[in-house]
Structures are given as structure tokens and as C-alpha cells.
Design brief:
92 residues, alpha+beta, Zincin-like, 50% helix, 15% strand, globular
Length: 92
């Protein structure tokens, strides 16, 4: 997976399609982000560079409940690609 602004945009769109709102803010996040489950919001440290934002979004995707019915075929395919990358990263 490439850690580019294009990848960041695709991950942001994927999370938003899963009905989560992404906010970039400042705060004392131990992991650089936090998930507000009841409100389906994720807050990511706004001072993070692109690679750190992507890593945070990947961590978030690994943790949130995913309703695949919200995605079309192309988006499902991308989600599967992302999930494979997350698994590979966890095994390394």
C-alpha cells in the first residue's frame, strides 16, 4: 500500500461510506486517534503527517464494525485489499 495523499483520501472516503465522521483535531491521544462509538465519529491528531494519518485510519478500520451492505462492488474490493494489508502488517 502506498502512503500517499491519494491513499489517504480513499481511506477517508471508505470510512465515511461506513457512516463514520472523520474529524481532525488536537488533543492528547495516546494512539494518535480516538473513536467515539456512540456517535460514529473518529478524531485523528491534526498534526499528523500523511503516513501517520493513513496508519491511524488503518487501525480504525481494523476496529470498527463494518456494514458491507453500505458499499458497492468497487468499494468492497478496496476494503478487502485494505483488510489484507492490515492482516499482513499485523503478522509482520
Amino acid at each position: 500500500m502506498n502512503f500517499t495523499k491519494h491513499t489517504l483520501k480513499k481511506l477517508e472516503e471508505l470510512i465515511e461510506l461506513l457512516e463514520y465522521e472523520i474529524l481532525y483535531g488536537k488533543g492528547n491521544f495516546q494512539s494518535g486517534y480516538c473513536i467515539v462509538e456512540n456517535q460514529k465519529k473518529v478524531v485523528i491528531n491534526r498534526y499528523f503527517e500523511t503516513e501517520a494519518r493513513i496508519n491511524s485510519l488503518l487501525d480504525i478500520i481494523a476496529q470498527i464494525e463494518i456494514n458491507e451492505k453500505l458499499l458497492d462492488e468497487k468499494q468492497l474490493s478496496y476494503l478487502e485489499e485494505v483488510q489484507k494489508f492490515i492482516l499482513q502488517r499485523a503478522e509482520a
